Amino acid sequence: MRIAYLDCSSGVSGDMLLAALLDAGIEIADLRKVLAKLDISGYSISVKKVRKGALLVSRLEVRITRHQHFRSYQDIKSIIQNSRISPAVKITAIKILRKLGQTEAKVHKCRLEEVHFHEIGAVDTIIDIVGTVWALSRLKIGKIYSSPVNVGSGTVRTAHGILPVPAPATAALLKNIPTYSSGIKQELATPTGAVLVSTLSHSFGHLPEMRVLAVGNSCGSREVPGHANLFRVIIGQKGKK
């Protein structure tokens, strides 16, 4: 069975996870073809190679080219549900979206139907969730393992004001999952990254025994002084083929 290990020692965000999977052996052109099946427009997506110390890693960039409006949970669910992506990817993506929406609703004391994703955030959320689920399927990953999650510390500025790190939704999504802070004064784990890792991972701990087939490295857009801000996915074969 082919497995993937998510190295969250520098935290996790949706774009970093997706970029690492692309770096592990997926062409950006293939991702664009999948995203074209969704009823969203007014954006462009690219992957750039960025040098971080001795490593050349991938960074995913989503640029908004046209005004985007607020999208509710139901809006995004309908976009995924009515798309032409594969049924398996569709089901998993909606499951992840629902968990994210339910957590946001609980944190902000509102109904799921009232949860709104802010303009750019809505596009990013759709791309990160659908793209990650599709990429894992494309890489034929049968089971996902993860390290404990480094959440960072300090505060983060959000649409809801300045919040402590981990942000309330992130903390709720990582319930019962091994987390820690290395003392970096930054938000290292985002709600989208947290929902992807918590939903998709089979277990959390050390790197499992495997025959390594590929490694994908990515970085976030933020520069963190004294910290590489890297994410890594290790793909390997576990047991017999």
Helix and strand layout, with pairings?
Layout: E1 2-7, H1 14-23, H2 28-35, E2 43-52, E3 55-64, E4 71-72, H3 73-81, H4 87-107, E5 116-117, H5 119-138, E6 143-146, E7 149-150, E8 155-158, E9 161-164, H6 168-173, E10 179-180, H7 191-200, E11 203-204, E12 211-219, E13 230-237
Parallel strand pairs: 1-6, 6-11, 7-10
Antiparallel strand pairs: 1-13, 2-3, 4-5, 8-9, 12-13
Mean pLDDT: 93
Largest sheet: 5 strands, mixed
Order of helices and strands: EHHEEEHHEHEEEEHEHEEE
Q: How far is the N terminus from the C terminus?
A: 6 Å
Structural class: alpha/beta
Count of all domains: 1
Number of continuous helical runs: 7
How much is the radius of gyration in Å?
Answer: 17 Å
- Please give the number of β-strands: 13
| C-alpha geometry | globular
Low-pLDDT stretches: none
Output the strand order for the largest sheet.
Answer: 11-6-1-13-12
Helix amount, in percent?
A: 25-40%
Task: Give a written overview of the molecule.
The protein is α/β, with parallel strands linked by helices and 241 residues long. It has one domain (2-65, 130-237). 35% of the residues lie in helices and 27% in strands. The protein has helices spanning 14-23, 28-35, 73-81, 87-107, 119-138, 168-173, 191-200, and strands at 2-7, 43-52, 55-64, 71-72, 116-117, 143-146, 149-150, 155-158, 161-164, 179-180, 203-204, 211-219, 230-237. The strands form 5 sheets. It has a 5-stranded mixed β-sheet, covered by helices on one side. A two-stranded antiparallel ribbon has the order 2-3. The chain has a two-stranded antiparallel sheet with strand order 4-5. A hairpin with a 2-residue loop joins strand 8 (155-158) and strand 9 (161-164). Helix 1 crosses helix 7 and helix 4 (87-107) crosses helix 7 (191-200). The radius of gyration is 17 Å and the shape is globular. The model has no long low-confidence stretch (mean pLDDT 93).
